[in-house]
Amino acid sequence: MKIGEILIRRQLISQVQLNQAIDIQTSLHMKLGELLMFQGLIQPQNLEEALNEQYWRENGYWIID
After folding, report:
1. Nearest residue to 24 (alpha-carbon basis) of 11, 7, 39
2. 3-state percent helix, strand, coil for the chain, nearest multiple of 5
3. Chain segment 26-46, per-residue pLDDT in tens
4. Residue 4 in contact with residue 12, Cβ under 8 Å?
5. Domain map (residue ranges) of the chain
6. Mean pLDDT rounded to a whole number for the chain
């Protein structure tokens, strides 16, 4: 699962905000999470938790909540 999808699922950002960030990301060459923090849309803790979820989902250990 992509980090943007996780952040939307956690209701931290909207689909519109994600789309806008992806458009900006292309020109700034920043990682999505860094850009969303720079924009003030998420906090470092939000990103850390979402990255942890992404890691565990990709490695087959995520427990469905």
Report:
1. 39
2. 65, 0, 35
3. 899 999 999 999 999 999 999
4. no
5. 3-58
6. 93
